[in-house]
């Protein structure tokens, strides 16, 4: 893969404009444009920088154990300044709305939605009906917001149990699918991977066991979330919406332990998918746990109005 191909792939994965990519690389737009159009070549140090960025966005960079442990310690320090995260979210409408927007936009984009962040905001906060976008995409945005509203209200006093999971799914797929709120009754494959999914007859028992593990008071919550998220996605209990429900469960687990919802940006989609695959197929949880740490810190940025 040459430099032009790597730069275009970085832009596609990250969703940034060429101007934004030039800023990230510390060069002018004109220089970047010349490289993409193959009118000139970057110097050696810039080639190294582009390679590092390519490795990061393609999910090939492995974070060391020491780096992840440092992130965990940083999170625990930040946590002390936020003694009651769910109350802080609910009592601050601007913070709550930013979580609605960021979580809804990014989770749906990860699943292939074409809505921009601005269009998502119009749908969520202005009840806009966009003529140039499908009704299904707009319903999914509103439904995800409704699922978050339910989650925020439920999690301060309710349990993470099977009824909670089925309720989230019924809200998320309301008026989108006729099987909303029920487990699948057929075999499925996860598109684009060779990850085996559960026999549909075993789903209720597998979910019951998973719930027991979700509610364990593990010392390392980040690895616990990585492990249970990987298992939920591999069980793949629903006909549709498994990725979004899985990430909603991550938020619920985090809030139960007084951490903020985890913001996985759509620009991290390939990294997220690759690390999830590694956790499922190789039981390699560390990279996914590292991504969850990053997503937690992004949640704190919203709490602290640094968006």
TrEMBL record:
Residues 160-294 form the Fido domain. The record marks 111 as: Important for autoinhibition of adenylyltransferase activity. Pfam families: Fic, HTH_3. The keyword Iron-sulfur does not apply. Keywords: ATP-binding, Nucleotide-binding. The keyword Calcium does not apply. The active site is at 236. One of its GO terms (molecular function) is ATP binding. ATP binds at residues 240-247. Residues 15-52 form the HTH cro/C1-type domain. This is Fido domain-containing protein. It comes from Candidatus Yanofskybacteria bacterium RIFCSPLOWO2_02_FULL_44_18.
């Amino acid at each position: 893969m040459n430099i032009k191909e790597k730069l275009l792939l970085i832009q596609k994965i990250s969703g940034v404009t060429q101007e934004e990519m030039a800023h990230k690389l510390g060069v002018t737009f004109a220089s970047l444009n010349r490289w993409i159009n193959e009118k000139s070549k970057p110097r050696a140090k810039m080639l190294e920088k582009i390679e590092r960025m390519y490795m990061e966005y393609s999910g090939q960079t492995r974070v060391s154990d020491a780096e992840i442990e440092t992130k965990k310690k940083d999170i625990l320090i930040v946590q002390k300044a936020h003694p009651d995260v769910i109350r802080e979210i609910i009592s601050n409408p601007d913070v709550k709305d930013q979580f609605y927007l960021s979580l809804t936009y990014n989770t749906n984009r990860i699943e292939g939605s074409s809505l921009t962040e601005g269009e998502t905001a119009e749908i969520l906060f202005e009840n806009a009906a966009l003529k140039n976008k499908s009704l299904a995409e707009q319903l999914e945005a509103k439904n995800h917001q409704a699922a978050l509203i339910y989650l925020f209200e439920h999690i301060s006093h309710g349990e993470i149990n099977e009824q909670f999971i089925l309720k989230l799914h019924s809200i998320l797929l309301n008026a989108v699918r006729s099987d909303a709120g029920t487990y699948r009754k057929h075999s499925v494959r996860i598109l684009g991977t060779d990850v085996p999914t559960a026999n549909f007859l075993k789903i209720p028992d597998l979910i019951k066991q998973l719930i027991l593990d979700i509610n364990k008071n593990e010392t390392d919550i980040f690895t616990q979330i990585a492990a249970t998220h990987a298992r939920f996605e591999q069980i793949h209990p629903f006909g549709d919406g498994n990725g979004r429900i899985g990430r909603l469960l991550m938020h619920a687990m985090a809030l139960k332990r007084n951490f903020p919802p985890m913001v996985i940006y759509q620009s991290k989609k390939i990294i997220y998918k690759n690390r999830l695959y590694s956790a499922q197929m190789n039981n390699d949880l560390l990279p996914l746990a590292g991504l969850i740490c990053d997503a937690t810190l992004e949640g704190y940025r919203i709490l602290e109005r640094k968006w």
